[in-house]
Design a protein that fits this description.
Blueprint: H1 2-24, E1 26-27, E2 33-34, E3 40-49, E4 61-74, E5 85-90, E6 102-103, E7 109-118, E8 122-132, E9 135-137, E10 144-149, E11 154-158, E12 163-168, H2 171-175, H3 180-187
Length: about 210
C-alpha cells in the first residue's frame, strides 16, 4: 500500500506541476500608468523557458514583456515615407534580437514587435532606431529607452518621438539602383578600339 500511495503522490505532484506551468506561462499585466500610449501597444507578460537556468527535467522560466513599438518616417518635406525598412540596434550598436524589423506602410507608419526580458521586476532597454532599404536618418537620433517597473506598473518610452525624419540614401542610387550606368561604362572598349558592329568601316563603305 505504501508503494501505491507513493506512486499516486508522484503522479499527483506531476499533474500539479504541469498545471502550474500551463497556467503560469501567461501572467496578467496591470499598467497603472502608461506614459507611452499610442507608441507602445498590445502589451502582455509571457513566461518563457530559460535553458541556461534549467536544471534537470523541471524548466526554469523568465518573464518577458511583449508588445509593439509604433512610429513613423517622413522625408525632408514632412511627407510620409512608404517602404522604408526600420530596425533597432542595442546600446552597443549591434542589431537587437529583442526587436523585430518592420516596413513603413502607405502612411509612413511602422510597428516593431518586441520581447524584452524582465529582471528583478524591472525592464530597462536602451537602443536606437535605424533605417535601411535605401533610406538614412537625416541626422543622428538620440537613443531611446523602454522602462517598466512591475511593482508600481509604470511603463515609459522616451524620448517620445513618433515621427523620424529620413532621406533617400543617394539620388543616383534611387534612379539607377543596380548600377547599370557603371556596368555600361565598364563594357565600352578602351580608346583606339572599335565597338562591335563597326567592322565595315575598314572596307571603305560610306553611309
Amino acid at each position: 500500500m505504501g508503494s501505491v500511495n507513493s506512486a499516486n503522490n508522484r503522479v499527483s505532484f506531476l499533474f500539479a506541476a504541469l498545471a502550474l506551468i500551463a497556467t503560469g506561462c501567461l501572467r496578467p499585466l496591470s499598467v497603472k500608468e502608461n506614459l507611452s500610449e499610442g507608441q507602445i501597444t498590445d502589451l502582455k507578460v509571457i513566461r518563457k523557458p530559460s535553458p541556461e537556468k534549467t536544471l534537470g527535467i523541471v524548466p526554469r522560466y523568465d518573464d518577458y514583456l511583449e508588445g509593439y513599438l509604433r512610429g513613423g518616417v517622413v522625408n525632408p518635406d514632412g511627407k510620409p515615407v512608404a517602404g522604408a525598412i526600420v530596425k533597432v540596434s542595442d546600446s552597443s550598436g549591434r542589431p537587437s534580437r529583442d526587436f523585430g524589423s518592420g516596413v513603413t506602410d502607405q502612411n509612413g507608419e511602422f510597428r516593431l514587435r518586441f520581447s524584452l526580458p524582465i529582471r528583478w521586476n524591472r525592464l530597462d532597454f536602451t537602443g536606437k532606431v535605424r533605417l535601411s532599404g535605401g533610406w538614412d536618418m537625416i541626422s543622428p537620433r538620440d537613443d531611446f529607452r523602454v522602462y517598466f517597473n512591475r511593482k508600481n506598473g509604470v511603463l515609459a518610452y522616451f524620448p517620445k518621438e513618433f515621427w523620424i525624419p529620413g532621406r533617400a540614401r543617394k539620388a543616383e542610387s534611387a534612379q539607377d539602383p543596380k548600377g547599370l550606368d557603371k556596368l555600361k561604362k565598364s563594357l565600352k572598349p578602351p580608346p583606339g578600339k572599335k565597338e562591335p558592329g563597326d567592322i565595315f568601316d575598314d572596307m571603305g563603305f560610306e553611309p
